[in-house]
Structure to design on (118 residues):
């Protein structure tokens, strides 16, 4: 069993900053990918940023504004969000692709709300 727990989030003004943190724990050999997705009121869940075996991937809409950093020794990941825009309003989910021996599954956190509004 794998647990994914997020922290952070909340309300920010346009142009402001927020930080999200996530930790994955439980029974697995390794985590191949760890990162963040989001789902707005009228959107499907989409990738925000993730670390895949040390390679960072970002959605075009957040490049230059968001930065993801991962600590492999602690199975944690942090998303620094700067220059926030109202369009960033969404529920943000942390996802850990965990497993081993060639078998991996995606494990999701419960989600945390980010609201960007003046």
């Amino acid at each position: 069993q794998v647990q994914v727990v997020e922290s952070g989030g909340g309300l920010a003004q346009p142009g402001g900053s927020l930080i999200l943190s996530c930790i994955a724990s439980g029974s697995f050999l390794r985590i191949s990918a760890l990162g963040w997705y989001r789902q707005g009121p009228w959107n499907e869940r989409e990738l925000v940023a993730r670390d895949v075996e040390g390679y960072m991937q970002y959605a075009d809409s957040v490049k230059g504004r968001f930065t993801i950093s991962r600590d492999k020794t602690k199975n944690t990941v942090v998303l620094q969000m700067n220059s926030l825009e109202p369009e960033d309003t969404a529920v943000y989910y942390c996802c850990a692709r965990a497993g081993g021996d060639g078998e991996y599954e995606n494990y999701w956190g419960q989600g945390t709300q980010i609201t960007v509004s003046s």
Notes: The first strand starts at residue 2 and ends at 8. The two ends are 41 Å apart (CA to CA).
